[in-house]
Design brief:
Binding site for ATP: 32-39
Helix content: 25-40%
Protein name: Chromosome partition protein Smc
Function: Required for chromosome condensation and partitioning.
Subcellular location: Cytoplasm
Structural class: alpha+beta
Radius of gyration: 17 Å
Strand order of the largest sheet: 2-1-3-4-5-6
CATH architecture: 3-Layer(aba) Sandwich
Order of helices and strands: EEHEEEEHHHH
Bound molecules: adenosine-5'-triphosphate, magnesium ion
Family: Belongs to the SMC family.
Strand content: 15-25%
Number of strands: 6
Shape: globular
């Protein structure tokens, strides 16, 4: 899976609609302290289904919604969408991928109403989104998304945790979810 574009609106410090095109190769985001670099990485995690508010550096999930400043009113919703292209070897099996291999996943949260997801315009469940990214060997906990302190966490991880990282990298994490589902039926 190749990420091509990230769109944000009302997400953390990105109150105005913001579009970030991601070209092939290495992308660098530079800027002064507090300008929102980490918020962008968090937006990628969030749209992939991150369910822990703590890992978004918040107390509750609604803390991702623009909270307002002295000069701007707070927002009532936040929206992030990610445009990805299917690559050879991706399963993308649970996704309604377009003929051009494009998949746009969108997550929206409203105050008091929780999160909702869409994939190429269709309403989908959080679970479907988790499978889409797991099948493409990525997701909110992918080792490819390296945040501050993560290197030390890998070194200190217990063997089971390290195994989970390897399984995500190998793209088989989705199989565990499906097995658990099958066992419950
Ligand atoms: P550093 O270089 O220090 O790591 P950074 O560029 O990674 O900085 P971020 O941590 O992404 O910066 O952004 C922090 C900024 O985002 C702070 O100014 C904080 O007030 C703002 N912010 C976070 N959540 C919200 C929110 N819900 N509403 C408005 N602003 C927010
Ligand atoms: Mg940062």
């Amino acid at each position: 899976m190749e990420i091509r574009r990230l769109k944000l609106s009302g997400f953390k410090s990105f109150v105005d609609a913001t579009e970030l095109r991601i070209e092939p190769g290495l992308t660098g985001i530079v800027g002064p302290n507090g300008c929102g670099k980490s918020n962008l990485l968090e937006a990628i995690r969030w749209v992939m289904g991150e369910s822990s508010a703590k890992s978004m550096r918040g107390g509750g999930m609604e803390d991702v919604i623009f909270a307002g400043t002295a000069s701007r009113a707070r927002r009532d919703f936040a929206e992030v969408s990610l445009l990805a292209i299917q690559e050879q070897g991706d399963l993308f099996s649970s996704a309604p991928v377009g003929a051009d291999g494009e998949l746009e996943v969108m997550r929206r949260i409203e105050r008091g109403a929780g999160s909702a997801y869409r994939a190429n315009g269709q309403d989908v469940r959080a679970k479907d989104v988790a499978l889409i990214f797991a099948d493409a060997a990525t997701g909110p906990h992918s080792p490819a998304l390296v945040s501050q302190g993560k290197i030390a966490a890998v070194i200190a991880a217990r063997p089971q945790e390290r195994r989970a990282m390897l399984e995500e990298a190998a793209g088989i994490a989705g199989l565990h979810v499906r097995r658990r589902d099958a066992e419950q039926k």
